[in-house]
Amino acid sequence: MLAVLAWFTYRSARAATLIADDDGVVIRTLIRTRRWDWSEIEQFSTQIRVVGVQSRLIVGIRLRSGRIYWSDEIGGRPGKPAGQRLEAAVAELNQVLARQSTRNC
Questions:
Q1: H helices within 1-105, ranges in order?
Q2: Full-model pTM
Q3: For the chain, what are the domain ranges?
Q4: E strands of 15-83, at which residues?
């Protein structure tokens, strides 16, 4: 039981994280970590979706395969400072993606 609590505490401290580096993008949530190479990603976007009982602006990653990964844990309220920061971060991620795409051609 103590091991489960320690794991949960460790994961919750690192949850809701998006990291972009030279190799690609990592999204950490409470339960799992996902990684995509830049070559797998077509576009970053945001969308207002119902999460629990409220509408939130959340980040999405459209893959070249056509699949979209929506991260319910990374988001903010639309029109509020957190939502505005998310929109700015997504715009910056798309700029980084464009630079990575031209670098890999």
A1: 2-14, 81-103
A2: 0.82
A3: 2-103
A4: 17-20, 24-28, 33-37, 41-51, 54-63, 68-76
Residue 54's φ and ψ, nearest 5 degrees, are: -130, 155
Res 64: pLDDT: 96
CATH code for 2-103?
Answer: 2.30.29
CA–CA separation, 52 vs 20, rounded Å?
27
Radius of gyration of the chain (CA): 15
Q: Which pLDDT value is given to residue 11?
A: 52
The average pLDDT across 13-28 equals 85
For 35-91, write each residue's pLDDT tens digit.
999 999 999 999 999 988 889 999 999 999 999 999 988 888 888 998 899 999 999
